[in-house]
Design goal:
alpha/beta, 12-stranded mixed beta sheet, 6 helices, about 20% helix
Length: about 350
Amino acid sequence: MKFSQIVQTLAASTGQSPMESSLAADPEIMGVAAVDQADPGTLSFIDDSQFERWIQQTRASGLILPQNHHLQAQADLRGIAWMATSQPRMLFAQAVALFYQPYKPTPGIHPTAVVHPSVQLGKDVFIGSHVSIQAGAQIGNGVCIHPNVVIYPGVSLGDRTVLHANCVIHERAQIGADCVIHSGAVIGAEGFGFVPTPEGWFKMQQSGRTVLEDGVEVGCNSAIDRPAVGETLIAQGTKIDNLVQIGHGCQIGEQCVLAGQVGLTGGVRLGKKVILAGQVGVANQAKVGDRAVASAQAGITKDVDPGAVMSGGPAIPHKTWLRAATLYSRLPEIYQTLKQIQRRLEAIDPGE
């Protein structure tokens, strides 16, 4: 595909036509690549002036650049074709889709699949080998269920949802349209509910359900538990990374992002567009306000205000944490200074 064709296609799809660009020799683009790994014939992107050095080093034939005339001039000097946008990373994501589409099998049911007679199947459904779909499940139109998936009774899957190999959807779970559940994920398993008694732990049955609204994605080997009563809710558009644990009764707002190894205990409430970085832990019943951010390994033990940025364990405001971290690295020096002051004080004659 010629670079000029890519510019026209992306401009039309994003409503940015005409898009500022420089075609150079209008190279043939055969794929996409990271700017530091690009070969001739590939398209890459730079989204910030701090990466200017890569314009001098990259072998890419085309670049998506920010609306920065200095960077554009640098690309011109090297004879690299470019297009400019206010959101280079977003435009690059759309460019990737021009060259790659995820594997989508032809609709049909593999002969080794076991589908209960009461299951309601929509149109154009794919069911792979050794899938088990139990009684009362409802499968929407265009759903893709890869091999070895197990779907318990009473599950509902919305249109175009994709279940990757070896995931498990437990009873009465409700998954909306355009969701993606990756391999090894478990949706709607029993929450961790045990009541202490003098004789030991009494198991509280988890009679609730887990609900994923439209457009939710769940990464590999993540677990979202159902509660004893009520529901665990993951609202529209939320994205969950690999190895995430979401405890029973959590309520996750719209468009949240939970990175790898995040752990939420029971009853946690996240507002809209909350971002939890890797290995963040949130304590039982804590509430996190809209658009709050927790940096990697933060431990949230109490409620967080909307828009707050938190770091550390237990989590504190990020700016305070930065000052504390700077002091922490100087503790040996501060300790030696205190010892010197102590020795000097001890050497002072009390009678003077």
